[in-house]
């Protein structure tokens, strides 16, 4: 299971989180606004981090934290409909640019 922490006060972030929810046919995502009081209980690894401006994720099995572009691979692993895009992660610069475009606020 992959936890996704997004800014619940950012309309763009909310739309992206809603899109992710719709893609999650296997219920592998747990989406939390960063303002939710339960977030640090579920993911204490995120406490003290600056969460604004970039989406964060955490694998709830390994407790590994991912930020923006580094979150693409775990997302593609849990969203089978989009797994065919995995090859793009090997294109130099792609992960950073798509991560910035889709998984960052600015």
Q: Can you walk through the features of this model?
A:
The chain is an alpha+beta fold and 106 residues long. Helix content is 32%, strand content 16%. The protein contains 4 helices and 4 strands; from the N terminus they run E-H-E-H-E-E-H-H. The chain has helices at 11-23, 39-42, 72-78, 94-103, and strands at residues 2-6, 29-33, 56-59, 65-67. Strands 2-1-3-4 form a 4-stranded mixed beta sheet, covered by helices on one side. A hairpin with a 5-residue loop joins strand 3 and strand 4. It is globular and about 35 Å long. The relative contact order is 0.20. The mean pLDDT is 83.
Q: Which residues sit in consecutive blocks of at least 5 with pLDDT less than 50?
A: none
| Helix/strand structural class | alpha+beta
Q: Mean pLDDT, as a whole number?
A: 83
Largest sheet: 4 strands, mixed
Q: What number of domains?
A: 1
Write the element-wise H/E pattern from the N-terminal end onward: EHEHEEHH
Number of strands: 4
Please indicate the percent range of residues in DSSP E strands (runs of 2 or more). 15-25%
Overall helicity: 25-40%
Adjacency order of strands in the biggest sheet: 2-1-3-4
Bulk shape: globular
List the quaternary state of the chains: single chain
Radius of gyration: 13 Å
Distance between the termini: 27 Å
| Count of helix runs | 4
Give the key terms:
single chain, 106 residues, alpha+beta, 4-stranded mixed beta sheet, 32% helix
Give a nutshell description of this structure:
The chain is α+β, with helices and mostly antiparallel strands.
């Amino acid at each position: 299971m992959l936890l996704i922490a997004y800014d619940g006060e950012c309309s763009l972030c909310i739309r992206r989180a809603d899109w992710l929810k719709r893609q999650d046919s296997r219920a592998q995502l747990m989406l939390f606004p960063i303002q939710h009081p339960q977030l640090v209980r579920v993911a204490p690894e995120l406490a003290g981090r600056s969460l604004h401006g970039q989406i964060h994720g955490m694998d709830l099995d390994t407790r590994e934290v991912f930020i923006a572009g580094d979150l693409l691979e775990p997302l593609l692993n849990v969203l089978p409909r989009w797994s065919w895009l995995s090859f793009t992660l090997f294109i130099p610069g792609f992960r950073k640019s798509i991560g910035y475009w889709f998984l960052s606020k600015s």
